[in-house]
Write a structure and sequence with these properties.
The protein is α/β, with parallel strands linked by helices. It contains 9 helices and 11 strands.
Length: 297
Amino acid sequence: MDLSSSAELKAFDATARSGSMSAAARLLGIRQPTVSAHIAGLEKRFGVELFVRRGRGVELTTFGHALHEVSNRIYRAEQQAAMLLLSARSQYEGHLKICAVGPYNVLPMVKQYRGLFPKIRLAVSVGDSRQIVEKILDHRDDVGVLLHAVDDERVHCVPYRRQALIVFAAAGHPLAAAESVTLSDLEGQEFVLREHGSQTRSVFEAGLAAAGVRVRSSVEMGSRESVREAVAQGLGLGVVAETAFVPDARLVVLPIQDLQLSTHVHVICLAERRSAPLIAGFLAVVDKLKVREDAPG
């Protein structure tokens, strides 16, 4: 007789854990007389007494306690095995929600992740850095890709890459033909900037303030792509991370010699969820890509 798979032993263990045969029946999803018959069968077959009946409940005998120590280990191991298998399966099936400041850093991560886990459904949304942190803390998204470190004990934050800021202009702009431009040449220039909350804008404005340079901004845009089009239409200069600049015959990157500003891409998730299989797999991809980014050449 294989006791580890015996319905009788399972009935015994459930009764020992729940304290009554009726509760054990509910736990196992079977009828109470069936539980009673299983336990009576064990006692008769092996000539032992497992329980002493006490009113509507039961108490383990000395031998029953010894047997329960063994049966409890068996079924605890079964549960651990089931959890491990479910965890493994969830690495290949599931739904991961990602929010990023833009497509340029997150898409290589998504491509690599999809190659490893093709059955996982990915939903990628776009927002500014402040919105991303809020969505992670509110459990609305699983992973965030943003442009600054997050100093919050609730958040696990992984540095990914540094990206320099550049200023660009329409090809017909007076500064577009200059061989060399300095920050002071930007004094009084009209800029098309992202809305407040954009980390790129915050870093750029702080850098200008530190250099004592003042610019004008009459037009704000809600996306990087809108800024690029507005600049191409001659509405002002634009600023963007070098990695996010899309070459366009209508646009020129200004050769500003003393522009030493940058944003720092980070990937975040809730600290308590960093070991969840889908999130841990994504963080492993981020780490792999980060190593490639830092490698020579």
